[in-house]
């Protein structure tokens, strides 16, 4: 079972970059399945706090990234299957954003500020 | 699909190796590599499927799909170039350039040209290019450590790289799709949502009702169920399930068929599978899209704390901690440094005081740069910096300028304008200062954009349409088309010299000229009064109005709401409203009228007016009264004239008018009020008062000024002084720490000077009790027999005479314990008719009925007393001659019934005199008997005098009078007219107006204008002492060679004072104890 579904609703946090919803300890212990290769959260509680938010709206359980219109609409169809938030309050810290940009990654905030 | 999950890390072979630390890589390498390979084969199929579906779905949109198609075509034909593009895409992994699928060829060409060195035709060059890029990236790597490291690339040889790249890009040529390709694991493309309209080939969206609040649980449960079965041929047609906070009670499932959707949800608690329905295609976007956004909060914004110690306090946002949905605010701290504030009351807001904190708890005080930590709180510049959840704050507090000034407080070292400016500047971008509502703005208003991209632009409002303000500005001398703004983005702009009108706030209605228009705060020179007003820009409007007299009524004529004015013809009225140019008043007939300010004449000296109520007692402003008829409305008097009172009912805003004669005090309990009381009783200070009957009534509670002890409640056992009373409540000031508290009357006992206590509820009830003037009356009224002998004497008789009710007097007299008292007291009640000389006899007579009810002897005694009194001036006669005679008489006539005349019980040798007869009271009178019995009036001084025993007890045991010598040396030895003395249990002040050392009698005039007598019998109780002088006091020498001399005390040295006699420039040393304060006015005022 690879997709990480939060075991309970305690301390749910959503990644500010990809929006995946996990328990805080999951982020800490296993990192973000999508973003951890850029933003190391595994084992870094402060990074988890910085790059995830407890305030999010909407929970989308994406089972098959291929073929899902909902996932495509939410820009999560390139990510791992899992539970994602539709709207995450907050932005990553500026240094993280800068670093992402340096890696050639455009950061799309999921707080609704970049509404098309 | 279990593999497929891991396969989402399509880049893992490269990226994970590239960006992860060594140990990560070594741990992950193997499985990642294997899964990758497997993934690519299966993925290609998926992609093909997707493409078909997508193409079908997007078929209608020509431009988009066309370009996509042509791209696809190109991908196949020019593979190496495309690879290079993919390479670049990898480099700019998240760039929107790549996301825009519909980029045309031309653009592609340009970019390719610009990045020409990346366009390579063979794999080796490609590999080296990537290596360079990676090296470059690693050099730019942020040192934060948050980011995965990648220093492994160098170690890879060309073959490995080639293999990796081949593996990575093998799929692209076939699918030709950049978006669906597994390469863009994070977000390789970012198609705008508006282009993502669902098509008929997309899975359907099913909506299902569920219990409110269970939505997330349902989604999670469905997710667990689906993932568990994934890859096992179940739920293959289910793509996602979701819920939205804004769509409570619903969950949605994206599935190919209804049956699959039902399968997913079936059995999950809280789901009503029977209510499963299809979401129409056109509604799908609305369901998925989230529009509502939490209100954003900016640093500098003013907020208000909702709960806790700082509830209601103004706070300023310092920083926003969005991820945790909390903000850092700064507050004026409410600190209790030393634990002095009581339970339930919070300390007043005050900037942090390091000294106090150090004094109170120095160990927890640490500082770091400009921050100070104390008891876990952080202080910067005196303000408390605190992280608070946004949920606990009221946003958009819209503080007034006053509040901001207070907030700025003393932080700016007195220069509050600087503080305000600083604060206003800080808040300029926030919701203060600017006009926050559109209705404040009018076309023509000059505004400045304070928020958004165009911040700083100045323009003029051209139109206001709802919440959209259109502003035309001339940026760069070019008249631009009007731009639309939200009101909060704008701030009114004023220039010095503008004539403005204040629209809101404290100065509302005022007009004036702008002096200074710095940021949000504008200084206005008022047209009327010339004051400088500081007003927020949003509260101003350019106006040519000049505020009329009405608008400035408060400033011009000093009128205020609830002021008493006289209308034309002298009719009194009270102002109920002040509007521009108009006053609304309530006149004495209860009619509400609107008058021009010039027709309302303000009255002078509001303070001293008083009417009289139904009982003749004075009514003053603030008194609580009740109508004696009609609606029996109750309220407190706002204004009162001789005839009418304007009363504000409690808890109401509507005034009513009442004739004063139709009012009664609402807080007195007894209804039986003496109708002839005319003046308010002063606070009784233990001195007898001459108010005659009913003197206690008229407002002042006899309890006021009494020392009381609490019997019950939290203050049980505490001793304090009664400061005020209202109905059943008594306000008491503690002796111990001057703390005030309120307590029910029934929980108090009055403490008598002799140590007894009397329940306060029984104390001094109007009409039943002796007048409040005497400290002893309570004790007397309660038949406290122990009180009789010495200290009680005065009061007893006083009450007998003065009180409207004889009842207590009778009690005392029939006890037979205090006849002496009556004599003495009545005597030195200087205000009694007897004391006044001529009409003495009648006076005594007049009062006698009151006493008659008492012991049988009284009437006789009284009736005869005038004869005896005649020869003596006023008080001199009082307790002595008259009494003696009086007592004699009853005895002689045999009318002194009861205890009085019971001379046989008197063990004293002087049984032959009338005094002795009175002294029959075994308990108290031994002292009397011991004193030389006066046979004639001439012997008066010796009679009831000083040797009066201090306590009944001592009088039993020691019939011997106290040494007369002490008395001689005492008060009468030094008392000189016009010397001020302090006396009595409350150390009251008085002035000696007359003294007869030979007779051991003196008259004092008290500060309240009344007089009292002091004689030997009362010396021990009153213990009069000269009022000690202070520097520069007028003094009189009371002892020594200069006795009688008056002058000034110019200084003192220890117990030695320097006395400068009147008309003498020299100073003379004089012992301090020889001086008393001299009363030039001889007690009069």
Question: Which short descriptors sum up this protein?
Answer:
heterodimer, A: 116 residues, alpha+beta, Herpes Virus-1, three-stranded antiparallel sheet, 4 helices, 5 strands, 20% strand, globular, B: 1085 residues, eight-stranded antiparallel sheet, 52 strands, 28% helix, elongated, disordered N terminus, nucleus (chain B), KOW_Spt5_3 (chain B), mRNA binding (chain B), structural constituent of ribosome (chain B)
Q: Could you characterize what this model shows?
A:
The complex is a heterodimer of chains A (116) and B (1085). In chain A, 24% of the residues lie in helices and 20% in strands. By secondary structure, chain A is of the alpha+beta class. Chain A has a single domain, classed as Herpes Virus-1 (2-Layer Sandwich). Chain A has a three-stranded antiparallel beta sheet. Chain A has a two-stranded antiparallel ribbon with strand order 4-5. In chain A, a hairpin with a 5-residue loop joins strand 1 and strand 2. Chain A is globular and about 35 Å long. The relative contact order of chain A is 0.21. By secondary structure, chain B is an alpha+beta fold. Helices cover 28% and strands 23% of the residues of chain B. Chain B has 30 helices and 52 strands. The N and C termini of chain B lie far apart (106 Å). The interface between A and B is large, with 72 and 91 residues.
């Amino acid at each position: 079972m690879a997709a990480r579904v939060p075991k309970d609703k305690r301390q749910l946090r959503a990644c500010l970059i990809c929006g995946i919803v996990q328990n805080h300890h999951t982020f800490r212990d296993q990192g973000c399945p999508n973003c951890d290769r850029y933003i190391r959260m595994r084992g870094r509680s402060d990074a988890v706090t910085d790059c995830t938010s407890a305030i999010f709206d909407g929970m989308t359980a994406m089972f098959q990234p291929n073929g899902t219109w909902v996932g495509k609409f939410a820009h999560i169809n390139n990510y791992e299957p899992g539970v994602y938030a539709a709207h995450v309050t907050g932005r990553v810290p500026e240094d993280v954003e800068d670093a992402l940009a340096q890696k050639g990654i455009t950061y799309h905030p999921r707080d609704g500020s970049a509404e098309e | 699909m279990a593999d497929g999950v891991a396969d989402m890390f399509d880049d893992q072979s490269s990226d994970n190796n590239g960006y992860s630390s060594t140990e990560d890589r070594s741990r992950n390498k193997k499985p990642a590599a294997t899964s990758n390979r497997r993934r690519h084969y299966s993925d290609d199929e998926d992609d093909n499927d997707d493409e078909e579906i997508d193409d079908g779905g997007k078929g209608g949109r020509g431009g988009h799909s066309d370009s996509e198609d042509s791209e696809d075509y190109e991908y196949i034909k020019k593979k190496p170039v495309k690879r290079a593009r993919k390479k670049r895409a990898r480099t700019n992994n998240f760039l929107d350039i790549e996301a825009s699928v519909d980029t045309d060829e031309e653009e592609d060409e340009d970019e390719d040209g610009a990045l020409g060195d990346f366009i390579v035709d063979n794999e080796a060059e490609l590999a080296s290019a990537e290596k360079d890029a990676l090296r470059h990236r690693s050099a730019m790597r942020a040192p934060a450590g948050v980011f995965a490291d990648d220093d492994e690339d160098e170690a890879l040889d060309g073959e490995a790289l080639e293999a990796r790249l081949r593996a990575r890009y093998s799929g692209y040529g076939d699918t030709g799709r950049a978006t669906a390709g597994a390469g863009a694991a994070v977000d390789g493309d970012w198609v705008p949502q508006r282009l993502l309209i669902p098509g008929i080939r997309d899975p359907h969206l099913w909506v299902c009702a569920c219990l409110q609040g269970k939505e997330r649980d349902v989604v999670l449960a469905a997710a667990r169920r689906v993932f568990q079965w994934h890859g096992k041929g179940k739920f293959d047609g289910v793509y996602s399930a979701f819920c939205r906070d804004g769509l409570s009670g619903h969950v949605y499932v994206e599935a190919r068929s209804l049956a699959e959707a039902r399968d997913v949800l079936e059995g999950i608690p809280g789901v009503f599978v029977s209510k499963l329905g299809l979401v129409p295609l056109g509604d799908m976007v609305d369901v998925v899209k989230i529009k509502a956004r939490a209100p954003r909060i900016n640093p500098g914004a003013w907020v208000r704390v909702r709960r806790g110690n700082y509830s209601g306090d103004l706070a300023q946002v310092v920083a926003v901690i969005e991820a945790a949905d909390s903000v850092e605010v700064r507050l004026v701290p409410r600190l209790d440094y030393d634990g002095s504030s009581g339970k339930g009351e919070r300390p007043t807001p005050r900037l942090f005081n390091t000294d106090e904190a150090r004094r109170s708890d120095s160990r927890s005080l640490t500082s770091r740069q400009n921050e100070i930590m104390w008891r876990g709180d952080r202080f910067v510049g005196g303000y408390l910096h605190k992280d608070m959840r946004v949920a606990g704050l009221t946003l958009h507090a819209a503080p007034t300028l006053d509040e901001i000034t207070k907030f700025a407080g003393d932080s700016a070292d007195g220069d509050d304008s600087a503080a305000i400016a600083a604060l206003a500047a800080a808040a300029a971008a926030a919701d203060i200062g600017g006009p926050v509502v559109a209705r404040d703005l009018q076309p023509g208003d000059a505004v400045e954009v304070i928020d958004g991209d165009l911040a700083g632009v100045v323009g003029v409002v051209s139109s206001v349409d709802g919440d959209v303000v259109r502003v035309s500005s001339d940026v760069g001398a070019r008249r631009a088309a009007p731009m639309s703004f939200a009101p909060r983005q704008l701030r009114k702009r004023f220039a010095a010299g503008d004539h403005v009108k204040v629209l809101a706030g404290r100065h509302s209605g005022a007009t004036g000229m702008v002096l200074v228009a710095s940021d949000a705060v504008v200084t206005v020179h008022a047209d009327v009064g010339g004051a400088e007003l500081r007003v927020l820009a949003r509260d101003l409007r350019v106006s040519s109005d000049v505020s009329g007299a009405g608008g400035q009524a408060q400033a011009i004529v000093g009128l205020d709401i609830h002021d008493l004015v006289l209308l034309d013809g002298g009719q009194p009225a009270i102002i109920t409203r002040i509007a521009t140019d108009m006053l609304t008043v309530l006149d004495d007939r209860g009619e509400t009228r609107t008058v021009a300010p010039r027709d309302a004449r303000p009255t002078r000296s509001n303070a001293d007016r008083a009417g009289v109520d139904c009982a003749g007692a004075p009514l003053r402003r603030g008194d609580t009264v009740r109508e004696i008829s009609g609606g029996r409305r109750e309220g407190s008097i706002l204004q009162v004239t001789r005839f009418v009172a304007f009363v504000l009912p409690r808890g109401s805003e509507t005034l009513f008018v009442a004739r004063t004669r139709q009012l009664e005090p609402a807080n007195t309990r007894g209804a039986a009020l003496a109708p002839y009381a005319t003046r308010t009783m002063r606070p009784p200070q233990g001195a007898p008062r001459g108010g005659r009957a009913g003197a206690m009534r008229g407002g002042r509670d006899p309890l006021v000024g009494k020392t009381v002890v609490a019997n019950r409640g939290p203050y049980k056992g505490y001793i304090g002084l009664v400061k005020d009373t209202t109905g059943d409540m008594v306000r008491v000031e503690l002796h111990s720490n001057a703390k005030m508290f309120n307590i029910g009357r029934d929980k108090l006992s009055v403490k008598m000077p002799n140590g007894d206590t009397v329940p306060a509820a029984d104390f001094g009830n109007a009409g039943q009790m002796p007048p409040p003037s005497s400290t002893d009356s309570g004790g007397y009224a309660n038949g406290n027999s122990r009180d009789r002998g010495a200290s009680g004497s005065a009061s007893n008789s006083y009450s007998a005479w003065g009180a409207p009710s004889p009842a207590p007097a009778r009690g005392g007299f029939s006890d037979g314990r205090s006849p002496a008292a009556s004599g003495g007291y009545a005597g030195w009640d200087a205000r009694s008719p007897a004391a006044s000389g001529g009409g003495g006899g009648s006076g005594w007579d007049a009062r006698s009925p009151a006493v008659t009810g008492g012991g049988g002897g009284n009437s006789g005694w009284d009736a005869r007393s005038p004869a005896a009194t005649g020869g003596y001036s006023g008080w001199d006669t009082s307790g002595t001659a008259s009494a003696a005679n009086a007592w004699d008489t009853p005895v002689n006539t045999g009318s002194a019934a009861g205890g009085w005349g019971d001379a046989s019980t008197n063990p004293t040798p002087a049984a032959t005199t009338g005094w002795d007869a009175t002294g029959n009271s075994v308990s108290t009178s031994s002292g009397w008997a011991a004193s030389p019995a006066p046979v004639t009036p001439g012997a008066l001084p010796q009679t009831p005098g000083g040797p009066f025993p201090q306590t009944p007890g001592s009088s039993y045991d020691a019939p011997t009078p106290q040494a007369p010598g002490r008395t001689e040396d005492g008060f009468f030895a030094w008392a000189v007219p016009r010397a001020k003395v302090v006396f009595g249990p409350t150390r009251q002040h008085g002035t000696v107006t007359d003294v007869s050392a030979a007779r051991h009698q003196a008259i004092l005039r008290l500060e309240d204008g009344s007089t009292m007598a002091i004689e030997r019998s009362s010396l021990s109780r009153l213990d009069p002492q000269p009022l000690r002088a202070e520097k520069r006091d007028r003094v009189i020498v009371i002892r020594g060679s200069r006795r009688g001399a008056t002058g000034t005390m110019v200084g003192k040295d220890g117990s030695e004072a320097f006395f400068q006699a009147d008309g003498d420039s020299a100073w003379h040393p004089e012992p301090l104890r020889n001086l008393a304060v001299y009363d030039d006015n001889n007690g009069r005022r």
